[in-house]
Amino acid sequence: MGSIYKRLLRHPLRLAAALAPALLSPARVKGIVEVLFASGHGGAGGNGDGPPLPRHELFSIVVASDQRRRGVAERLYRRLCAGFRDRGVTSFRILVGKQLDAANRFYHRMGARPVTEVQLHEGAVSTIYVQDLNDESRPRSASIRSAGEVN
Ligand SMILES: CC(C)(COP(=O)(O)OP(=O)(O)OC[C@H]1O[C@@H](n2cnc3c(N)ncnc32)[C@H](O)[C@@H]1OP(=O)(O)O)[C@@H](O)C(=O)NCCC(=O)NCCS
């Protein structure tokens, strides 16, 4: 994660412009800080309280609302998995708010395993998924999906 933050800080004006809308909402600032803090400390559940978790993490995928349900997230996810594999990464974790139905369906469909639940933000439960990247647990293919074996 450190290298990502360093790259962001190389363009402070662009970073400030991107963050400006979120910074106007104290609740969103609090949410961002909580997620960053948990991640920087091995993630919720990764601090000895829960099962051991992979070091690598997918923070979030967001697709513009008018572009959803066209396979955009699936393509991004496959590229991410390929990039991780190229770097020798064997698994990564994802923290997903339990109330995010589309996101939870998505990670299940991609083959990520829910391994534990945590309460990160006040009163809100999140699921931690682990995506294994060995051959047997590759994200399921679109052709399998269209053949109706998944969903
Ligand atoms: C979760 C999210 C990233 C999914 O993005 P997406 O691009 O819509 O994802 P996909 O298109 O790959 O899959 C979504 C659905 O569309 C379906 N789909 C994919 N391609 C399709 C196509 N060509 N025609 C019809 N349906 C299609 C999938 O089967 C899936 O169906 P399901 O929800 O019933 O399982 C998106 O909903 C989002 O940005 N949500 C808000 C942010 C968020 O919660 N992010 C996760 C935080 S960790």
Automatic annotation (TrEMBL):
Alphabetical UniProt keywords: Transferase
Domain of life: Bacteria
Pfam families with a match to the protein in the record: Acetyltransf_1
N-acetyltransferase domain mapped to chain residues: 1-134
GO MF terms, alphabetically ordered: acyltransferase activity, transferring groups other than amino-acyl groups
InterPro entries linked: Acyl_CoA_acyltransferase (IPR016181), GNAT_dom (IPR000182)
Gene3D superfamilies recorded: 3.40.630.30
Name assigned to this protein: Acetyltransferase (GNAT) family protein
UniProt source species: Jhaorihella thermophila
